[in-house]
Amino acid sequence: MSLDLSCPDWADRLRDGRPPFRDLAPVSPEGDRAVAVFNKLRLADVPGTPTMAEAGGDWFREIVRALFGSIDPVTRQRAIRELFLLVPKKNSKTTNGALLMLTALLLNQRPHATLIMTAPVQDVAQLAFDAAAGAVALDDVLSRKLHVREHLKTIVHRETKAELQIMTFDPAVLTGQKPVAALIDELHVVSKMSKAASALRQLRGGMLPYPEAFMAFITTQSEEAPAGVFLDELKKARAIRDGKREGAMLPVLYEFPREIQQDKTAWTDPAAWPMVTPNAGRSIQIGRLVEEHAVAKDTSEAELRAWASQHLNVEIGLALHSDRWSGADFWEHQADDALTVDELFRRCSVLVVAVDGGGHDDLYGVTVLGREKETGDLLAWSHAYCLPIVLERRKDIAPRLLDFQRDGDLTIVPKIEEACAAVVALVKRADEAGLLGSLHDGKKRAIGVDAACIKQTLDALNAAGYPDEQIVGVSQGWRLTTAIKSTELYLSSEALRHARQPLMNWCVGNAKVELKGNAVLITKQASGSAKIDPLMSLFSAVEVMALSPVAAGRSFWETAA
């Protein structure tokens, strides 16, 4: 049994104040039964301890109805086996999640079943436990049905002996668990933990014997660009919502459409905020958000973007810093969705290839920069390579690097010579197409290599017929100031467009500026463990392009052939 969980009109639904998922015909009456149970639960931390029927939002009731209404009454097979809820802070996400799991415990028919709710930090896990245990304590019937074990953060059903365990996320503890239901709170934080992906795989595997099992993710956006398992699940949810793939995940994403997220004047307008704040008027007040927004805006651009990610689910494309590179402000707007390396070769009249390579702990970045035939604009495509040892030495960024590998923007190579060979292949491809630039003196080709480049790069170029005297050495440090400033001006004037690549978004966000006199420095040392090598290769490419290379074109004999 499968359901169509796509929702092509999700944006219109948000504008109309409706939940952003398809109206689903219930497979069984258990959805209505679950809502009835959920509605009776009381809020222990709200004055007057109202029931969810009195104080809860219709939006979450519809989620409960859809999730439990998808269970086949005969086979107990659940058509909706996963839930992905993306909702901003202060919308009672954790409380609703805790009471959802309490509802699941009460409706569970499997003896000795285990249900798990987990959060990345103790405070959030305690909040969830307090919400569930408080609802039990406020209802005499529930107090007779359920036994709250405070010291173990566990609630036991006295008849079925099923247990709801509420805990902090610990891969070592979760590995080997076989729950009939699991809820992961703040997935964007969980994804940063070591072995988080493995723990989730284990949980999913443990659920396979149970047809009624479900996995739920409830989370806000990340304060950084999405990465790791959070990015994986977010992509899956969006793809199902948009009808690009099938699945048993119910996507409930309270996020602005892309055109609003990319338009600062749109998402900073309080008139738009009810679209993504379903609990407005209950746990959250728009007027209070306006006050908080004003404080964040007056503090810094970085604080504003961080605030927007948490309270409006605006996705961070770039991790902006107070000492960020100014070109970052224009980067996202200049992304060209249609631009690939093949398109760049087709659309440009002259090409430059530039490399920035580091040590064993660094990425090896390459950029192909071209001048578009029709417009004269600059078009850029970049790629990165790294050795497996980078994943070991830089465990903090390893999940992101693996994401970039899956995106096709990074290649992990066993030896650096393979990266050098790939660069040579790009150079030869440009040269054979008659697009590789030559400088006016005719002695050098449009191949840029940083002055401290690893020897293997030069060796590979030399072996391919490009001796040192034909290669442009690009000095780094303060000498790169002109290229850095020029790149910013090209972006701000819309004269440079680049392929939409998460890798480069990350690198641009990592770039930190040091001012020394009139010089603008962007260095790997200032960026720390966060990498910028592909961005540095872009700056080098801009530096070489500033030398006005011209395409040699193919020889008569090549064209005649």
Fold blueprint:
Blueprint: H1 10-15, H2 30-40, H3 52-55, H4 58-68, E1 82-86, H5 93-107, E2 114-119, H6 122-137, H7 140-145, E3 146-149, E4 154-157, E5 163-168, H8 171-174, E6 181-185, H9 187-190, H10 196-207, E7 214-219, H11 228-241, E8 249-253, H12 258-261, H13 264-267, H14 286-299, H15 301-311, H16 328-331, E9 335-336, H17 341-347, E10 348-357, E11 364-372, E12 378-386, H18 388-393, H19 398-407, E13 410-412, H20 416-432, E14 437-438, E15 447-450, H21 455-463, E16 472-474, H22 481-492, E17 496-499, H23 502-510, E18 513-516, E19 519-522, H24 524-527, H25 533-545, E20 550-551, H26 556-560
Parallel strand pairs: 1-7, 1-8, 2-5, 2-6, 6-7, 9-17, 10-15, 12-13, 12-17, 15-16
Antiparallel strand pairs: 3-4, 4-5, 10-11, 11-12, 14-20, 18-19
What does this structure look like?
This protein is of the alpha/beta class. The chain has 26 helices and 20 strands. A hairpin with a 5-residue loop joins strand 11 (364-372) and strand 12 (378-386). Helix 5 crosses helix 6 (122-137) and helix 22 packs across helix 25.
